[in-house]
Design a protein that fits this description.
The complex is a heterodimer of chains A (240) and B (286). With 240 residues, chain A is mainly α. Chain A is built from 10 helices and no strands. Chain B has 2 domains: 89 residues, no CATH class; 177 residues, Vaccinia Virus protein VP39 (Rossmann fold, 3-Layer(aba) Sandwich), CATH 3.40.50.150. In chain B, the strands form 2 sheets. Chain B has a 7-stranded mixed β-sheet with strand order 5-4-3-6-7-9-8, with helices on both faces. Chain B has a two-stranded antiparallel ribbon with strand order 1-2. The longest helix of chain B is centred in the C-terminal third of the chain and has 22 residues. The chains are: A mainly alpha (240), B alpha/beta (286).
Chain lengths: 240, 286
């Protein structure tokens, strides 16, 4: 893009990221719904991502079971709470952790954040398969993929991504795929403290950074081929 | 009074109690349809309307809403998703202005089907003995016949003097609260009788949010009293129903009233049904 002007051209850097995704209104720490779900997460290691965890939580507050009307999406409310909370935690990590600020390049930062996010799953490790099963159910998959996109978008953005071309998509898409793969691996991982998962994360993410460039190269190549192909046809056609 | 008027369907209700309207300088007044009446009179007038329509209530609802009210009620029951979960004590339901009993039976059916809950109790109250008799009659004809869990009580929803504080878990009122003389008092009473964690669910006509649908809806409303005349031989009562719907507060305003009664209203506050012709409001007593 070119800016026409006589004076100094202001350098406009706009990253394509919404600073504040529209959060679900229930994701307000003051709301009773938040408090019940937060407490319910403590029951998840025991009961899994099940409505039972919400039920037990609301009972500890002394509420009638009728309050379950609040959670008409049942289990998905709980799962979504987990996903959103862990994603938002990353923003805190970035602003509060000195370790993160020391990191130099984008790729290391992505790696760091993905691992942080995976750490968020550790307490619920044995229920990840169940969580993933819920996420791919037809009624949930739309919201689930949106949440996944927000996660990779946040990670990319927080790591300093400034792509504004096709790489924007490819970077997020590739991160999403990698993340899902890692989580699936984690669900089966029996190693202590999920060391295997974190090792795999290191490996998988090392060449992730090149992907954006690869996509751009492919795009450029395709454009060139199509263009010259068209020119070839044109030149043949005009010869009559 | 309405019965007396039925021979001349187009006469306005107004004539029957015009003296009261003139009297408003001395006492508090409220709306009865589009008319202003003494607050003390409204209860009686609404009573007459429902006494008059009780036996034809269901068929008229079907005609007026083109059958959609059944879907709304189903959605309402699904949305509340009430019932005793495994390991819990039975819940206590109260269905206010629930004379016809369809919400009451629906809630119990849902609780049984979804949570295998066959213990929760249901109190159906209505200010109008005629409407309540209608519900009792239906109850004696369906699978809740002689079920000790269901009881019917003639009660004023604004007071509920036979219902103790903190004694109910789920309070429902469907297409009833707009007939209360003092809606806020009704909501406050709901708050009183519910236990902490208890839920109030209100299904009520509301304001249409789509201009085209609204135009259609407003014109449709004009025909309702005529249907009323044709099917139930009662023009004025249906005229009142239409006007009371138009008088009822908008979604946001009503949400505010629920909050004012002390309830926590979860986001987004209400759920519109069919472009807002009706709306579901939920509140939680914390």
């Amino acid at each position: 893009m070119r800016t026409i002007g006589l004076g100094a051209v202001p350098k406009v850097v706009r990253s394509y990221h919404s600073y504040e995704h529209d959060e679900d209104p229930f994701f307000n720490k003051e709301s009773p719904k938040y408090r019940i779900l937060e407490k319910a997460m403590e029951f998840v290691p025991e009961y899994g991502f099940q409505h039972k965890a919400i039920l037990e939580s609301s009972r500890t507050f002394g509420y009638s079971d009728a309050i379950q009307s609040l959670f008409h999406n049942g289990t998905f409310d709980l799962i979504k709470f987990h996903l959103v909370r862990e994603r938002l935690r990353l923003t805190e990590v970035v602003s509060k952790t000195e370790e993160f600020k020391q990191l130099s390049d984008e790729n290391t930062k992505v790696k760091y954040l993905v691992k942080k996010r995976l750490e968020g799953n550790v307490p619920y490790g044995k229920h990840i398969t169940q969580l993933q099963t819920y996420l791919v159910l037809p009624p949930n998959i739309g919201e689930a993929s949106e949440e996944l996109h927000k996660l990779s978008d946040d990670i990319r953005f927080l790591s300093g991504d400034s792509a504004n071309d096709f790489a924007w998509y490819s970077k997020r898409l590739s991160l999403s795929t990698t993340y899902v793969a890692l989580e699936t691996f984690m669900a089966q991982d029996k190693s202590p403290n999920y060391t295997n998962t974190f090792e795999l994360a290191d490996k998988r993410l090392s060449n992730l950074g090149d992907l954006g460039q690869v996509y751009n190269d492919v795009e450029e190549f395709l454009f060139y081929t199509v263009n010259s192909g068209l020119n070839l046809i044109k030149s043949q056609a005009t010869r009559g | 009074m309405l019965k007396m008027l039925s021979g001349s369907p187009l006469r306005s209700l107004n004539t029957a109690y015009s003296t009261n309207v003139e009297d408003k300088s001395t006492s508090s007044t409220t709306h009865f349809g589009s008319k202003t009446v003494l607050a003390s009179e409204k209860e009686k007038l609404v009573g007459q309307v429902f006494s008059s329509v009780a036996s034809k209530y269901d068929i008229m609802n079907d005609v007026m809403s083109m059958g959609v009210h059944r879907l709304w009620k189903d959605e309402f029951i699904r949305r509340l998703d009430a019932g005793a979960r495994p390991g819990s004590r039975p819940l206590d339901f109260i269905d206010v202005a629930g004379g016809s009993g369809d919400i009451a039976f629906g809630l119990l059916d849902h609780a049984k089907a979804k949570f295998n809950d066959t213990k929760s109790t249901m109190t159906v109250v209505d200010i109008n003995p005629d409407m309540l008799r209608e519900g009792e009659k239906r109850c004696s004809e369906n699978h809740y016949k002689n079920d000790p869990r269901i009881q019917f009580l003639v009660q004023n929803g604004e007071v509920l003097d036979k219902i103790e504080d903190n004694s109910k878990d789920v309070y429902t009122v469907s297409f009833g609260i707009r007939n209360f003389t003092n809606i806020q008092a009704g909501l406050n009473t709901a708050y009183r009788v519910l236990r902490p964690g208890g839920v109030i669910g209100v299904l009520e006509f509301s304001k249409v949010d789509n201009v085209i649908v609204d135009t259609f809806y407003q014109n449709w409303s004009k025909f309702l009293p005529i249907f009323g005349q044709a099917i139930a031989n009662d023009y004025d009562s249906y005229q009142y129903l239409v006007e009371s719907i138009q008088r009822f507060p908008k979604q946001e305003e009503f949400k505010g009233m629920i909050q004012k009664a002390g309830f926590y209203v979860p986001e987004p506050g209400y759920q519109n049904l069919t472009f807002g012709i009706a709306a579901i409001h939920i509140g939680i007593k914390l």
